[in-house]
Amino acid sequence: MQFDEASNLLGDCYFAMGEVERGIEAYRMTREINPKLFDYAYFRIGKAFKALEEFDEMESHYRQFLTIREGSPRLTEALSHLAWLKRRDGEKEEAAQLYWEAIHNYGNDPEAQAVEEMFRILAKFYRGDEGKAQYLSLLTELEAKAGNQSQKTLVARAIWMQAQLSEVERADGLLARLPDVVQKRELSPILLADTGDALRRLGQGDEARECYRTILSWYPRSLFKDRSFAGLGLLARSSGQDAEALDYFDQFERETVQSPLWAKVLEARAEIYIDQGKWEKAIEEWSRILEVKSAKGLPWVEALYQIGATYQKYDQPKKAIPYYQRIYVLYRRWDQFVAKAYLESGQAFEALRMTDEARNTYKEFLENTHLKEKPEYQQAETRLASLGGAS
């Protein structure tokens, strides 16, 4: 065992130094008697062939793997690389066939890695509305066939992929079925994370917690454990257990790598601080949302508004105004917040006794007649009239 670990570490070191050939030699010393270490070394060599664009060697390398490591949990990963080579050569039909064959042959094995990624890649072969409909039909057929053969893991994976192609409401309904199809321990981390999030959105907190805790118990090194901590924190927050929620959010922050739930966690943490009267800490959390690039859009707009509203609530209207202005200058597509920002900005100017600036803000607001249906529009008319301005 130690010899094979040392071989892999040596290979890693050589690769890090850019000495690829020597790294390959080191990896080749790893023995098959330690399957996990052997597979690691084998795929590192394959990665090197790909980086060096030695595609013939790469193909031969992975085809040999199919023979010598027939029972490996990474068999589907090798097939995926071979399919990638077919795609690279423009042989799309052959590539798709490889993916489908691998899914049919190994998709029911909970330990088979790369199956979910194969499903995702296959979606690229079915473009447009017609292609998507065809792919959904094939997945439905696969689900039925696997069900008839009691291949529960494959059924779960087929349902999961259907959810990836569906609108949120239908997707959540599909994912909520998975715990009834197969035991949670037999679901991969990504299926557990997606299912947990769906169940949480549907208000099925206990089932969601089980999904998240299964990831932490059975897959402690998974890249999806950040979503477990976030999900558990959000569930604790919704149950009024704020101390527990903050603890989970702290663990989430330590574990996260560009999680799609980052903005949601920061928002929840800010709300907890507001409830605790720690408004400055809440502003810090909302400000951090503005640094999350994946949250650009509505989450940013909501964060800007909350920062402005918090400053205004705590008698700092001068600090509030720039945040409101950013909304109606930069984010005009979100009408509901644009209207609120105009009104609040005008009132902040009034609090500062800057009557001309308040009057001009209300006038500018009222020139946006497409906002006329917003309740803030009429309030702005009233405020402008009180300042002696014409609406």
What characteristics describe this protein?
mainly alpha, 391 residues
What string, H for helix and E for strand, traces the elements in order?
Answer: HHHHHHHHHHHHHHHHHHHHHH
By DSSP (H or I, 4+ residues per run), the number of helices equals 22
Name the overall outline: elongated
What is the strand tally?
0
* Distance between the ends: 82 Å
* Average pLDDT over all residues: 92
Radius of gyration: 27 Å
The description of the largest β-sheet is: none
Structural class: mainly alpha
Oligomer: single chain
**Residue fraction in strands:** under 5%
Helical proportion? Answer: over 70%
Low-confidence stretches: none
Explained architecture:
With 391 residues, this protein is an all-alpha fold. The protein is built from 22 helices and no strands. It has helices at 2-16, 20-28, 35-51, 55-68, 75-88, 92-106, 115-122, 128-148, 152-164, 168-175, 178-181, 189-201, 205-218, 225-238, 242-255, 262-275, 279-289, 298-313, 317-330, 335-351, 355-367, 375-386. The termini are far apart. It is 74% helix and 0% strand. The mean pLDDT is 92.
Quick take:
This protein is an all-alpha fold and 391 residues long.
Please give the structural blueprint.
Layout: H1 2-16, H2 20-28, H3 35-51, H4 55-68, H5 75-88, H6 92-106, H7 115-122, H8 128-148, H9 152-164, H10 168-175, H11 178-181, H12 189-201, H13 205-218, H14 225-238, H15 242-255, H16 262-275, H17 279-289, H18 298-313, H19 317-330, H20 335-351, H21 355-367, H22 375-386
Helix pairs in contact: 1-2, 1-3, 2-3, 3-4, 4-5, 5-6, 6-7, 7-9, 8-9, 9-10, 10-12, 12-13, 12-14, 13-14, 14-15, 14-16, 15-16, 16-17, 17-18, 18-19, 18-20, 19-20, 20-21, 20-22, 21-22
